[in-house]
Amino acid sequence: MRIGLHTSTSKSLEDAALEAHRLGANTFQIFSASPRMWRASKPDTAAIALLRKARERLDVSPLVIHTNYLVNLASLDPDIRAKSVVSFRGELDRAKALSADYLVLHPGNFKGQTLEQGLAAFALGLAECATGFSAPALTVLLENTVGSGHQIGRRFEELRMIRDLAARETDLNIAYCLDTCHLFAAGFNIADPAGLAETVTAADRILGLDQVKVIHANDSKGALGSHLDRHENIGKGHIGETGFARILTHPKLREKPFILETPVESDEDAIRDIEALKRLSLARP
Ligand SMILES: [Zn+2]
Ligand SMILES: [Zn+2]
Fold this sequence. Notes:
Layout: E1 3-6, H1 13-22, E2 27-30, H2 45-58, E3 63-66, H3 78-97, E4 102-105, H4 115-129, E5 139-143, H5 156-167, E6 173-179, H6 180-186, H7 193-206, E7 212-217, E8 219-220, E9 231-232, H8 240-249, E10 258-260, H9 267-281
Parallel strand pairs: 1-2, 1-10, 2-3, 3-4, 4-5, 5-6, 6-7, 7-10
Antiparallel strand pairs: 8-9
Helix pairs in contact: 1-2, 3-4, 4-5, 8-9
One zinc ion (ZN) is lined by residues 179, 181-182, 229, 231.
């Protein structure tokens, strides 16, 4: 199994991989630049080489990069849109430079438009970012959201529509990342056996489970359908340990990389969540 967590690159790129390994993980997610700033610098070649060596030596894979939070490729505001295109192109370039496997992206916000217009704007934005870009080993993952306000991505159909529209405009590899907290808060009752079965069936029918490349394993502070994006440590939220045991052992999900984005104040918190995923993945619910 591949179980991992989001680690910090504040010391170095290499350290993010070392930290994942030290905490008991064999896959990880990072930001390739500050997640709350438009400006980003290019990682240097020596740092990238050290990251690659550490990953090979310790077998930490896949490497997932999460896009910064400011990017909204669906925005109607010309300034935000222009900045988003430049910023996400930087994300693509850095992901390729770092030999990342996946680049996770939230599908943005359709405020001021119809949902359909927002989906189209987002898909066109993606294609614009990828003009002249080629990285066959990299796949952009559209992440499902809790669907608060005008957020795109609470329904599988929206993610699928973006992928279909984008495929007409770009050769970029596009697939999906599902976040368990976002699913639950969006109204998919994955804490319940029947709800999980329905969700997996729907995801398979609409997205194709082979196209779900990564699962963000987060418990949910918010109730079912609350549209609250508040991650909780494994077992402490509304999905609970039994819910995670069923998710982790589901025959159609168990091969996926599970990556934590839970609140962590110390190494102990991180280790506890990684241990919980490992323990529950061996459970027989
Ligand atoms: Zn997530
Ligand atoms: Zn979230």
